[in-house]
User: Which sequence fits this backbone?
């Protein structure tokens, strides 16, 4: 078990198709460009262009905070939310935004504004009895949240360490951690043993896909949300999933060439995301 503030660091990747890009190209196909442009100029000025908390909850958070296999504080579960509510609105909003263990940064949606994310937190906290205000209408509260975000990011950076390989097998890591999402495809996770889900990833190559999962991508939390994992253990779990889905990837332990390629891709990715 890991401590409460051993986290999943910051960011994700946005260069594959995002829901926003999909909405955008669909709208273009429907010749909605003028309406879109109007919507964009509105969103730059009017705060009511922001989504409300129940919409964000439904679209982004419910896949983990609703019924299902992920061990998140569930919607309406007062027992689970009580200690979070006691921590305070600015604290848990900031921590969720940055990401904590299997909670991916921003809930895995890089398009969300802080106000929208904060509203979804309020939506869940109210369902568990809290009386929290809309942060979009509270400049002082928003400033407290941003301050806590910076403090959190700084604290996570200073604690970021890499544990040694304890020799966990890919199957064991999968069963204990990755299966929470990769068994049923929570939030779009590629399912173990599903050749369609893995086809593109397998074509990208073992070192790339391993590095990207390790750094984190959208709703994939960095290191699967478990800071106690070694890169080798994480990589074995990736190979375990890919090999059940048509690949023949190797255990990188002792393969200095493969490990070096994963490390170099990781470094590129982190630079690109300005994580270092
Ligand atoms: C991919 C799964 C997943 C998605 C999607 C997700 N969450 Fe979470 N969330 C979690 C898990 C797991 C935890 C528990 C983390 C822990 O404490 O170990 C959590 C915890 C939280 C917490 C408590 C943070 C703290 O201080 O401990 C907040 C707040 C939160 N989520 C908000 C949201 C919001 C808002 C959304 C949608 C915009 C969202 N989450 C989407 C998995 C998810
Ligand atoms: C809380 C949910 C969750 C957990 C736990 C989780 N994943 Fe994921 N993972 C995802 C989601 C969602 C995606 C799809 C991200 C996307 O492309 O939008 C994903 C994608 C991936 C990818 C593809 C990365 C790429 O290049 O697109 C790899 C590799 C991966 N996960 C490995 C793992 C491993 C190994 C574990 C266990 C140690 C794990 N995941 C645990 C949710 C999870």
Assistant:
């Amino acid at each position: 078990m890991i401590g409460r503030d051993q986290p999943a660091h910051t960011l994700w990747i946005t260069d594959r198709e995002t829901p926003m890009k999909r909405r955008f190209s669909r709208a273009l196909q429907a010749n909605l460009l003028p309406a879109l442009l109007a919507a964009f100029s509105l969103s730059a000025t009017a705060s009511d262009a922001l989504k409300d908390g129940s919409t964000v909850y439904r679209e982004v958070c419910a896949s983990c905070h609703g019924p299902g296999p992920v061990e998140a504080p569930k919607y309406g579960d007062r027992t689970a939310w009580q200690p979070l509510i006691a921590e305070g609105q600015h604290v848990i909003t900031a921590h969720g935004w940055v990401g904590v263990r299997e909670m991916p940064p921003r809930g895995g949606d890089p398009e969300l504004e802080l106000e929208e994310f904060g509203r979804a937190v309020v939506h869940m906290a109210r369902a568990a009895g809290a009386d929290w205000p809309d942060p979009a209408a509270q400049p002082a509260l928003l400033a407290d949240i941003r301050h806590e975000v910076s403090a959190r990011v700084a604290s996570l950076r200073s604690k970021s360490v890499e544990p040694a390989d304890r020799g966990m097998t890919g199957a064991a890591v999968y069963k204990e951690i990755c299966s929470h999402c990769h068994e049923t495809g929570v939030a779009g996770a590629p399912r173990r043993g599903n050749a369609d889900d893995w086809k593109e990833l397998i074509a990208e190559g073992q070192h790339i896909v391993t590095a990207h999962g390790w750094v984190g991508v959208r709703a994939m939390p960095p290191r699967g949300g478990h800071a106690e994992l070694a890169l080798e253990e994480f990589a074995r779990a990736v190979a375990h999933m890919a090999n059940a889905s048509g690949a023949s990837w190797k255990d990188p332990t002792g393969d200095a060439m493969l490990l070096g390629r994963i490390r170099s891709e990781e470094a590129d990715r982190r630079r690109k995301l300005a994580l270092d």
The chain has two domains: 49-159, 170-272. Residues 1-46 have pLDDT under 50 and may be disordered.
